[in-house]
Amino acid sequence: MSDTPDEILPVPADAGASECQAPADGDILEATAPVSEAAVATLPPPMFDPDAAIEVRHLYRYFGGLKAVDGVSFTVHRGQVVGFVGANGAGKTTTMRILATLDFPTRGMARVGGIDVLQYPTRVRAKLGWMPDNYGAYDHMTVVEYLDFFARALGFRGNERIDRVKDVMDFTDLTPLSDRLINKLSKGMGQRLCLGRTLLHDPEVLILDEPAAGLDPKARVELKQLIRLLADDGKTIFISSHILSELGEMCDSLVFINNGKIIHHGTADSLKKQTTGATLIRVVTTGDPNQLGEWARMSPHVTLKDMQRSGARIEVDSVDPEVISLVLRRMITEGIPVVEFHQEERKLEDAFIEILGALDAEKKRLPAPVGRG
Q: How far is CA 206 from its chain centroid?
């Protein structure tokens, strides 16, 4: 059924034609610096994994002398929720933009849904939903107008378009806000709208760049619930975030990147085990917590992790119960009024920081490169 005038919502005056036209395969190559024949020759041979939703092999992206992505390789299997973790400037967004066909690597290979992102970007976009950390919005445009506009840009027509917009609004709980102006939405509502736009064409793979950034606790919980529903529906989700505890709860595995290199790929539990060899203890006292802090700083086998309102977290450099019990006995003998002393599960943040610390220590032990005289 063709569109009739009453089905078509007005296109905003500031929405150019380029918003409505998907580039053809190869257009992204023309919009970026060409790759030299030498670079093409260094691309790795195809490595197909029939169960892979995302494949990255030997991926590099240089900006002048800056190695933003430095030999990254990893695989995300179909139906998985995988977290992508790293500090600001570690290479997360650059990697995600390459997967989303928005940037061109210096060299390497990336596939989404078994399709090469460099050779067939338009085919990749049909399978991919990209949610950036900031979404483009138009002033004086309502929620339903915004989604309807992008549904038409994606090729939906007539009742199919109307039904698709309704389904997305129902899923993201935006139906009560359908007539609200976009610039009047809260941060959490805006993120739901951006997710709704990402889901319009029902993509197999979702790449979400910092979707929880700036959200209040309630909005973060709501977003996490939506992500789990999408995962239960069989979507593959690749999500970046700085909130490691939440990623550990919702993700099947985690990929950690630092200085453009992958430093860990596995489950949250495997990351915690990778850094074991010490025991984290939470201590609560009835006295001045600063007394406990000073005691920890002066005691062998003990490291003060952080001070708390009624005590501190300390780390004992052993997992041997005898050593741990000895620390408790010495603490009591030396006058610390202990009321609680129990082992804490290692936090993902602690494990990640320990890995970074170990990498920095290793780098310092390496001999400096010898210059040519």
A: 11
